Amino acid sequence: MEEVEVVVAHSQRVTLRVGDVFLKVDGDPAHADVEVRAMALAPIPTPAILWREPPVLAIAAVPGRALGVLGEPSPASPAAWAAAGAAIRRLHDAPLPPWPGRRLDDVAAELDSECAWLLANAVLPAEVIRRNREIAEAALRPCKPVFIHGDLQITHVFVDGDEVTGVIDWSEAAPGDAMFDLATLTLGHEERLDDLLAGYGAGADRDVIRAWWSLRSLAVARWLIEHGFDPDAPGCEFDVLRSRMREP
């Protein structure tokens, strides 16, 4: 009998692993719709879809292991990070998916709302919030949209040796800012940015990547807290925000 492992569980979504099969249970069928369509379009390795019976999507495990986890040093080699960068570049160079991405005005409005909540609840020192809000402003600029993964956390990119074997969790894929993907993957692992960009190639804007580190950390903090996660764990979002205070 296969053991059932709870991979992720919160009020919006549950992911279970049974052997080499992942079962994703989501109350919003639109998430699975996007995931299925995005994986069909992406020009990089993605999991095989085994079956779908709403609200459940069954996908196969990909070989290898994740680049790392937030809060711990990545065990992956520089070459593996460069391979991840090259894979992301192929995705960003692909034709746009035929559905809309987030509007810049909506991103800015969300950032303001989340910063107001953080200040009102004294979750972090006010100066940390205000300084990171200033840094985040650089991400709020018009840019040419590309095909982005949209939730490219370090645990979503799998490698075997120095080869990318699969990228998982595509429910946020859409047209968007290429720098957002690069920032999400290196959040809390800023020391690996050079390795990633060695594979990604020209066109990366380090100031905008830095801005997205601040913006994403500010924007997700309340959701993490309300869903039982700890953004104040070592190496996680609050450490990312505090680290900005040590910069000139």
UniProtKB/TrEMBL annotation:
List the Pfam families. Answer: APH
Q: Which domain of life is it from?
A: Bacteria
* Keyword Transmembrane tagged: no
Q: Name the UniProt key words of this record, in alphabetical order.
A: Transferase
* A single MF term (Gene Ontology): transferase activity
Q: Does the keyword Transferase apply?
A: yes
What residues does the Aminoglycoside phosphotransferase domain cover? 39-211
Q: What is this protein called?
A: Aminoglycoside phosphotransferase family protein
Q: What is the lineage of its organism?
A: Bacteria, Bacillati, Actinomycetota, Actinomycetes, Micromonosporales
